[in-house]
From TrEMBL:
Pfam families: TetR_N (PF00440). Residues 40-59 bind DNA. This is Transcriptional regulator, TetR family. One of its GO terms (molecular function) is DNA-binding transcription factor activity. Residues 17-77 form the HTH tetR-type domain. It comes from Marinactinospora thermotolerans DSM 45154. InterPro entries: Homeodomain-like_sf (IPR009057), HTH-type_TetR-like_transc_reg (IPR050109), HTH_TetR (IPR001647). Keywords: DNA-binding, Transcription, Transcription regulation. The lineage of its organism: Bacteria, Bacillati, Actinomycetota, Actinomycetes, Streptosporangiales.
Length: 222
């Protein structure tokens, strides 16, 4: 008789996976409810229906859990952007240089929804970042850039890896500056006006990354 029941190690791994996902889901729920990180590990463990020890069996720190939550939130956006890169690489939008493919995907992506969410749940009562949460946000954006770099290389395997990394490094650093100025102007809320401001700042980032900064400053006389 064929016994299709999972082995004991298999059941153990399934239980571990359920516990891990329960911890991530509970963290996401608490972050949305509290509009930030104002909860304790004990509250998290209770919400996930696991022990405090189980939380730290799966994650080295609360920051690692928060990073996974934020990465899941960004994941759908990255999937859409990867599909956009694939379509442009295939010529569905007509002939387009590689940088313009990336720029076009950045323009069409719903970055404001994700950035607004991250600003809200990682920010303070004033919706701004502390040095600690800015580090978390930067980590999330860095992962975002790495995944898009890898996607671009799959579609353009003859591209210079160093140049691709330079391009995404410049765009990623620029997005951090765009978010800072966007927040200062709009308060980090997701409205029609804040989206207009984001689009204008993003366009400046794209233009400067493409053309450089040589003409950005007035010439000085000796």
């Amino acid at each position: 008789m064929d016994d299709s029941r999972p082995s004991t190690p298999g059941r153990r791994e399934a239980l571990k996976a359920r516990h891990r996902q329960a911890i991530v889901d509970a963290t996401a729920t608490l972050m949305r409810e509290r509009q930030g990180l104002g909860f304790t590990v004990d509250e998290l463990a209770e919400r996930a229906d696991v022990s405090r020890r189980t939380v730290f069996n799966h994650f080295a720190s609360v920051d690692d859990i928060v990073f996974e939550v934020c990465s899941e939130e960004v994941g759908a956006l990255i999937g859409d952007m990867e599909a956009g890169l694939a379509a442009r690489a295939a010529g569905e939008f007509g002939p387009m240089p590689v940088f313009d493919q990336v720029a076009d995907v950045l323009r069409s992506a719903d970055l404001v929804s994700v950035i607004s969410y991250l600003t809200r749940v990682l920010g303070s009562a004033e919706y701004d970042f502390s040095p600690h949460t800015l580090e978390l946000f930067t980590r999330v954006i860095g992962d975002f850039a790495e995944r898009l770099s890898a996607s671009l290389m799959r579609h353009h395997p003859s591209s210079d890896v160093f140049v691709v990394h330079l391009m995404f490094g410049a765009l990623t650093a620029g997005l951090l500056v765009v978010r800072e100025h966007w927040h200062a102007i709009t308060g980090g809320v997701d409205t029609e006006e804040s989206r207009r401001v984001w689009a204008e700042l993003l366009e400046q980032l794209i233009d400067r990354t493409r053309g450089g900064y040589g003409s950005a400053f007035p010439e000085t006389q000796p």
